[in-house]
């Protein structure tokens, strides 16, 4: 018997192959690049010793290493092993890991899948089996007869006026369509396209538009963008905050959800996010005049009118409780309320400036440069302005040029705060400060990855790229829960996301390729959680909307992170 097998088997009564993999070895369950970093974290008693990389049948050891004893957990670093293949990691006394791959383009499938998740979220259309596989379903929410809610009534469009605003993506586990969250989502996806146009164009997701000559990413974005255009009141330029049922639908399939739908009050936040996205979409559509005739002009006109409305209505906050005391029916769905709109204003101004080169917009953006730059989220979009200005830094008009270094400094400072302390954390990921764990923490981790990738683009420093990869590793399994957080990917992944189609379709497996919200010590849903600790406050139960829901704004930075890491893989050491 080879020595390794003797060592492995001597601590066990049953043959290894008959045993299940252990949950105690935490690693990226998809895999690693041949020349990239490879780290696993091992929970449980801190016993020193060796670890082994073996073939999946455990018979052939291919690499031997020594466990590192961290402050809290042990780690196994097998970066030096570079041979492509499928393997497991074995730790005597602990067990063996789920299988993983080492190969070039190892994240390509999960990256494209994350983009495909938007197809599954499409409203107003059936999903035929040839695109949706087992998760094909009938059309739901035509949204061709949407009512103007009393909170949105104007002389020209009084309450109960019927509008059409079809298409768009369902926001999350629910079936409503929220402009604020659509804005940050589209901004992130369109930024990815603007930064990696060739790479994006080469990715196919098997959607009905795959045969046309637009990149699938843009076709998918257009499904939502065309809905978004209909959310603007053409008579004044203001944008309705959301298109929604009064109350959340039951856990039924889209076609069975028939409650009346409303557009509600116009808000400054929605209108500014809309302006930013339309300005950005305008310059992208301008690159496809034959495929998208007239769209660039329509988007720019919509953006300009939205900006003007927001200038005249600087503080029209969406406050659901106040509306509900004044109008009927009461609206109980997601609020997406935000009292801090300097960032939304800065983002809209920056995108309008880049597209029109009008210095007035730069003046409106400029105050943002005097503030520290926070991480992007649905309520905080300032980073999207900086990403775009950095992307176009070589082509900007003279008025912006003196600030190029400051824009860069703000972005690198943000990235430096994300890297600080990461190596000392138990899982050695950028993600993991205690404040990182909140509702949608997986989206936050992905957004950290995006910020780090921006810093890498600007500086060429590989530490930023490697740090971004630690967060992809985190999302795919190297974390305190042991889950790969993308449905249908990895070995241990969510089975019961708070996602109405996944629950109602009668198929055991959830709709694939969704990123769930992730650990959230708020535990606002009152479900049963395994632990109160922030990093372990995740539960794979359908009731858990606070940790196990899916959402378009969390998947978008994952798409960005996974695509960009794939595009940069050869730069990994
Ligand atoms: O930002 C603070 C942070 O500073 C603080 O440390 C932390 C401590 O609890 O709280 C953070 O705020 C939380 C915020 O999410 C973070 O993004 C709030 O407590 C929390 O209530 C808030 O939750 C939001 C949730 O709706 C409830 O309003 C989520 O962001 C938001 O993603 C979620 O969105 C819902 C829609 O309403 C409806 N559709 C599904 C969607 C996803 O769950
Ligand atoms: O399903 C809803 C989910 O999309 C929201 O994020 C969440 C928080 O607003 O609310 C969920 O709906 C629940 C509601 O808030 C309370 N009653 C049970 C609903 C379904 O679980
Ligand atoms: Ca804001």
Topology:
Layout: H1 3-10, E1 25-26, E2 31-32, E3 39-42, E4 50-54, E5 61-66, E6 68-69, E7 74-77, E8 85-91, E9 95-96, E10 100-102, H2 108-120, H3 129-132, E11 146-148, E12 162-163, E13 177-178, H4 179-195, H5 197-201, H6 216-230, E14 242-244, E15 262-263, H7 268-285, H8 295-312, H9 320-326, H10 342-356, H11 359-365, H12 382-391, H13 404-419, H14 441-459, H15 462-475, H16 500-504, H17 552-568
Helix pairs in contact: 2-17, 4-6, 4-7, 4-12, 4-17, 7-8, 7-10, 8-10, 10-11, 10-12, 12-13, 13-14, 14-15, 14-17, 15-17
Q: Which key features would you list for this structure?
A:
573 residues; alpha+beta; Immunoglobulin-like; five-stranded mixed sheet; 17 helices; binds ligand G3I; binds ligand 9MR; binds calcium ion
Architecture overview:
This protein has 573 residues and is an alpha+beta fold. The protein folds into 3 domains: 3-102, Immunoglobulin-like (Sandwich), CATH 2.60.40; 108-339, Alpha/alpha barrel (Glycosyltransferase), CATH 1.50.10.10; 427-573, no CATH class. Helices cover 36% and strands 9% of the residues. The chain has 17 helices and 15 strands. The strands form 3 sheets. Strands 2, 4, 5, 8, 9 and 10 form a 6-stranded mixed beta sheet that branches. Strands 12-11-15-14-13 form a 5-stranded mixed beta sheet. It has a 4-stranded antiparallel beta sheet with strand order 1-3-7-6, with no helix packed on it. It is globular.
């Amino acid at each position: 018997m080879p020595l390794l097998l003797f060592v492995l088997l001597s601590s066990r009564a049953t043959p290894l192959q008959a045993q299940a993999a252990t949950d105690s070895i935490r690693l990226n369950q998809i895999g690693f690049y041949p020349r990239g970093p490879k780290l696993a974290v091992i929970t449980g008693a801190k016993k020193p010793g060796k670890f082994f990389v073996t073939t999946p049948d455990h018979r052939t050891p291919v690499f031997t290493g020594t466990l590192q004893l961290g402050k809290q957990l042990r780690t196994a670093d097998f970066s030096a092993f570079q041979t492509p293949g499928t393997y497991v990691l074995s730790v005597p006394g602990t067990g063996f890991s789920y299988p993983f791959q080492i190969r070039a383009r190892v994240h390509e499938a999960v990256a494209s899948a994350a983009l495909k998740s938007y197809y599954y979220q499409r409203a107003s259309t059936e999903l035929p089996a040839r695109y949706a596989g087992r998760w094909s379903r009938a059309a739901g929410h035509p949204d061709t007869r949407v009512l103007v809610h009393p909170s949105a009534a104007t002389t020209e469009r009084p309450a109960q006026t019927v509008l059409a605003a079809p298409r768009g993506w369902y926001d999350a586990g629910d079936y409503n369509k929220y402009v604020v969250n659509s804005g940050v989502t589209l901004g992130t996806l369109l930024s990815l396209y603007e930064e990696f146009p060739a790479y994006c164009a080469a990715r196919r997701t098997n959607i009905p538009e795959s045969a046309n000559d637009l990149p699938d990413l843009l076709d998918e974005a257009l499904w939502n963008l065309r809905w978004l255009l209909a959310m603007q009141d053409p008579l004044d330029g203001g944008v309705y905050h959301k298109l929604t049922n009064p109350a959340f639908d039951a856990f039924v399939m889209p076609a069975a959800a028939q409650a009346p739908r409303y557009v509600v009050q116009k808000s400054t936040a929605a209108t500014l996010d809309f302006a930013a996205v339309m300005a950005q979409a305008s310059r992208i559509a301008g690159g496809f005049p034959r495929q998208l005739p007239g769209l660039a002009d329509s988007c720019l006109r919509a953006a300009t009118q939205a900006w003007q409305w927001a200038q005249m209505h600087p503080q029209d906050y969406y406050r659901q409780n106040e509306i509900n005391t004044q109008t009927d029916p009461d609206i109980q769905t997601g609020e997406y309320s935000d009292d801090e709109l300097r960032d939304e204003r800065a983002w809209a101004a920056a995108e309008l400036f880049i597209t029109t080169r009008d210095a007035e917009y730069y003046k409106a953006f400029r105050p943002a440069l005097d503030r520290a730059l926070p991480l992007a989220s649905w309520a905080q979009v300032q980073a999207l302005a900086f990403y775009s200005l950095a992307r176009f830094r070589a082509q900007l008009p003279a008025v912006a040029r003196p600030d190029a270094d400051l824009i860069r400094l703000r972005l690198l400072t943000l990235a430096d705060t994300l890297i600080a302390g990461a190596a000392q954390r138990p899982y050695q990921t950028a993600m993991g400060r205690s404040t990182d764990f909140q509702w949608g923490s997986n989206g936050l981790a992905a957004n950290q990855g995006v910020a780090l990738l921006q810093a890498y683009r600007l500086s060429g420093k590989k530490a930023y790229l490697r740090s971004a990869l630690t967060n992809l590793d985190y999302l795919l399994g190297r974390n305190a829960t042991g889950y790969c957080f993308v449905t249908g990917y990895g070995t241990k992944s969510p089975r019961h996301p708070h996602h109405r189609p996944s629950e109602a379709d009668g198929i055991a497996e959830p709709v694939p390729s969704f990123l769930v919200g992730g650990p959230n010590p708020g535990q606002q849903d009152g479900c049963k959680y395994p632990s109160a600790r922030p990093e372990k406050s995740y539960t794979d139960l359908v009731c858990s909307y606070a940790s196990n829901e899916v959402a378009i704004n969390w998947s978008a930075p994952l798409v960005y992170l996974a695509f960009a890491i794939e595009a940069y893989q050869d730069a990994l050491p």
